[in-house]
Design goal:
Blueprint: H1 3-25, E1 30-35, E2 46-55, E3 59-66, H2 67-78, H3 82-85, H4 87-109, E4 117-118, E5 122-126, H5 128-133, E6 142-149, E7 152-159, H6 160-164
Antiparallel strand pairs: 1-6, 2-3, 2-4, 2-5, 3-7, 6-7
């Protein structure tokens, strides 16, 4: 992949992530870099959301962030303090975010008027190590886009096949 192609895809990532979080949570998320591996090991509780793109069959798009960051997004989206939300509502909100984000990414990457199909989102919690052990987030068949939000890092794992579209 040429530098120009990589830059164009990174612009798509930045735009889709920014539009999603600004529209849903009124929060700014800044693109930092893309990598082939997760840059740090985190010990704080993390949450992940995964949605598989079925057609074209490119595989899973995964969002990984500290649970406290997702809680802040949920507070902004629902205009309620986190104590009133409950864990299930926070995780359901995470599913809505990954669904919106995957739709924006695919619409930006595919030719206009091309349909695509995505599966229902899955989500969960754990430490970074336990999440990586599940496989997809740090797969060699994916690239990791790193974003900064609330002085923390958020990760978006994108299948290599997405980059090749």
């Amino acid at each position: 992949m040429t530098h120009e192609q990589l830059s164009a895809i990174e612009e798509i990532l930045q735009s889709a992530v920014s539009e999603t979080f600004e529209a849903l949570a009124f929060e700014e998320v800044l693109f930092h870099e893309t990598r082939n591996v997760l840059p740090k090991f985190y010990t704080e509780p993390m949450c992940w959301a995964e949605i598989v793109v079925l057609d074209p069959p490119i595989g899973p798009i995964i969002l990984l962030m500290p649970f406290l960051v997702m809680k802040r997004f949920s507070e902004a989206i629902h205009s309620r303090p986190g104590e009133e939300l409950g864990r299930q509502m926070i995780m359901d909100t995470f599913g809505e975010i990954i669904n919106t984000l995957a739709g924006r990414l695919m619409a930006a990457r595919l030719p206009k008027d091309t349909t695509f199909h995505i599966d229902l989102p899955k989500f969960g919690e754990g430490t970074q190590g336990s999440i990586e052990a599940q496989g997809s987030i740090a797969s060699p068949a994916s690239r990791i886009a790193v974003f900064n939000v609330f002085d923390r890092e958020m990760f978006l794992s994108i299948p290599e096949l997405f980059w090749a579209l």
